[in-house]
Amino acid sequence: MTRHPFQRQSHRPLTTLALAVALVVATGVLGACSVVGNGLTGPTWKLIALSETVPYARTEIPAADQGRYTVSFADDGTATITADCNTVLASYTAERGGQLRITPGPATLVACPDDSKADQFLAGLAASTGYNVYGPAMSLYIGNEGSLEFAATE
Prior knowledge:
Elements: H1 12-32, E1 44-52, E2 57-60, E3 69-73, E4 78-83, E5 86-95, E6 99-107, H2 118-126, E7 130-134, E8 137-142, E9 146-152
Antiparallel strand pairs: 1-2, 1-3, 1-9, 3-4, 4-5, 5-6, 7-8, 8-9
């Protein structure tokens, strides 16, 4: 088929290719975003249990005390932690596949009651290597050593 010199050439293959390239780039960029859409952001998470694997131990946090240990993740990669009587600001990265790193930052330094689990809680958050969000529940994994179990606040 011969084309007339003034006949408009179809750019459909180039347009399709450009859209495909844009889709691949957008998917890569959004996939590289380590925070938005990871399931962590939104609710404030209250600690309901601490678990260790060796030796196995699980410490349930009484319902009345769960508000003393919370974490809220923001879309900008920051987190606000309530560790009993102290507030801690942190940064975090969450990757595809459930990898997580929390880096605690500035904190208030109020003396907490003797029954406080603040030190265990903060150590667990800082050692977190992964997470899983399933509905109103979340687990933060501390390698193979244990986990922190959370429930979304109501």
